[in-house]
């Protein structure tokens, strides 16, 4: 009897994997959750996937379509020039989530205030926070860009429509992730049960599971930072970069898109940093829709993320578009950067104690 027991062939196992779509994966992960929570999250992730497919479709033909490349002529709330793809992608997320029935509010890098979808609010208790195009300087030169997202549950009624309940730490994220538009389109997400990546199969129009339970190596060769800002950094960051310049085993990699740089580090290890600068003392990256979602992933993958003095996941913002310095990646590499920050702090304190300026 045992001899004739059915053993799935390699082909059957490969087919099982090919059938693991994003929404099926979310449902599998939430088998012990309440059915309504599982349905909501599967639906929300399905909508994020749809937004990713729409943006990927437009990017894949960007050089051939009118109104796709270049700037709009507007400046956003960050004081940055808006690209046509920023605007398009921002609108993609709005349209997609209008039809979700589940999302009442959207917060985006491209919108000064929260965007409300009143028809969803009686039932939709979720808020989507997103960076529609991360690394938008790469769009016009056909290099990798991404979208970053986080989902939080609304707390209270938000009667004043000020979204004050969003000004909380990263543990309030119930899902986070990104879509990387590179040679293939890859979606990486976590709902607090590990980090998983999916690749868009254009022939199926589906995100199919490519890797489950990704773990960041504890150390890696990559250091990823815009060294053009060296002159603007605090001495501790300069000391770290001098250290890597003088030791074997490091490789500089910086693409101009956080999502792409983080993705490399997620798989190969290393550290990405965007410190404060003279011109931007809090750095460039925004907490709620850039740093905190990636910190959620880093933590879930066994890595670390800090401002240099505080875990990103513990940081309490005071405004929607708050910026923070970011050091993120492998635990050992993040610890090496922070050791320089601590050493610098000690030196300053010692000098102050000795009455030396
Ligand atoms: P965005 O395109 O959403 O404004 O983000 C760009 C960010 C990030 O993706 C990247 O790491 C960094 O800005 C690049 O900035 P610099 O050009 O200052 O290095
Ligand atoms: Mn960005
Ligand atoms: Mn952006």
Query: How many DSSP E strands?
Result: 15
Principal-axis shape:
globular
**Annotated CATH homologous superfamily of the largest domain:** Fructose-1,6-Bisphosphatase, subunit A, domain 1
SSE order in H/E notation? HHHEEHEEEEEEEEEHEHEHEEH
| Averaged pLDDT | 95
Radius of gyration: 21 Å
Please tally the helical runs, counting DSSP H or I stretches of 4 or more residues.
8
CATH architecture of the largest domain: 2-Layer Sandwich
Largest sheet: spatial strand order: 4-3-5-6-7-8-9-10
Taken as a percent bin, the fraction of beta residues is 15-25%
Structural class: alpha+beta
Largest sheet: 8 strands, mixed
Structure description:
The protein is an alpha+beta fold. The chain folds into 2 domains: 17-211, Fructose-1,6-Bisphosphatase, subunit A, domain 1 (Fructose-1,6-Bisphosphatase, Chain A, domain 1, 2-Layer Sandwich); 222-353, D-Maltodextrin-Binding Protein, domain 2 (3-Layer(aba) Sandwich), CATH 3.40.190.80. The protein contains 8 helices and 15 strands. The strands form 3 sheets. It has an 8-stranded mixed beta sheet, with helices on both faces. A 5-stranded mixed beta sheet has the order 12-11-13-15-14, sandwiched between helices. Strand 7 (173-181) and strand 8 (185-190) form a beta hairpin. It is globular. The model has no long low-confidence stretch (mean pLDDT 95). 2,5-anhydro-1,6-di-O-phosphono-D-glucitol binds next to strand 5.
């Amino acid at each position: 009897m045992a001899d004739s027991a059915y053993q799935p062939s390699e082909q059957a196992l490969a087919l099982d994997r090919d059938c693991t779509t994003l929404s099926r994966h979310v449902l599998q992960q939430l088998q012990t959750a309440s059915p309504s929570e599982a349905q909501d999250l599967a639906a929300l992730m399905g909508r994020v996937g749809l937004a990713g497919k729409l943006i990927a479709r437009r990017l894949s033909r960007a050089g051939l379509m009118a109104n796709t490349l270049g700037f709009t002529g507007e400046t956003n709330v960050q004081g940055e020039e808006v690209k046509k793809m920023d605007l398009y992608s921002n609108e993609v997320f709005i349209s997609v989530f209008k039809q979700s029935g589940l999302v009442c509010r959207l917060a985006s890098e491209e919108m000064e205030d929260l965007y409300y979808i009143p028809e969803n609010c009686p039932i939709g208790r979720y808020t989507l926070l997103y960076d529609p195009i991360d690394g938008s300087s790469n769009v016009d030169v056909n290099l990798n860009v991404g979208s970053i997202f986080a989902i939080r549950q609304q707390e209270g009624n938000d009667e004043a429509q000020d979204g004050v309940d969003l000004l909380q730490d990263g543990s309030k994220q119930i899902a986070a992730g990104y879509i990387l538009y590179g040679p293939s389109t890859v979606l990486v997400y976590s709902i607090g049960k590990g980090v998983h990546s999916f690749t868009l199969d254009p022939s199926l129009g589906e995100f199919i599971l490519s890797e489950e339970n990704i773990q960041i190596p504890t150390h890696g060769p990559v250091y990823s930072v815009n060294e053009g800002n060296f002159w603007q950094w605090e001495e501790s960051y300069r000391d770290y970069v001098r250290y890597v310049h003088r030791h074997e085993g490091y490789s500089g990699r910086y693409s101009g898109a956080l999502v792409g740089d983080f993705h490399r580090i997620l798989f190969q290890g290393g550290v990405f940093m965007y410190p404060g600068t003279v011109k931007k003392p809090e750095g460039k990256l925004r907490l709620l829709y850039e740093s905190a979602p990636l910190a959620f992933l880093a933590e879930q993958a066994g890595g670390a993320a800090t401002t240099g003095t505080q875990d990103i996941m513990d940081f309490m913002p005071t405004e929607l578009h708050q910026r923070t310095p970011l050091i993120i990646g492998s635990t050992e590499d993040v610890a090496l950067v922070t050791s320089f920050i601590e050493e610098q702090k000690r030196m300053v304190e010692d000098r102050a104690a000795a009455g030396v300026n």
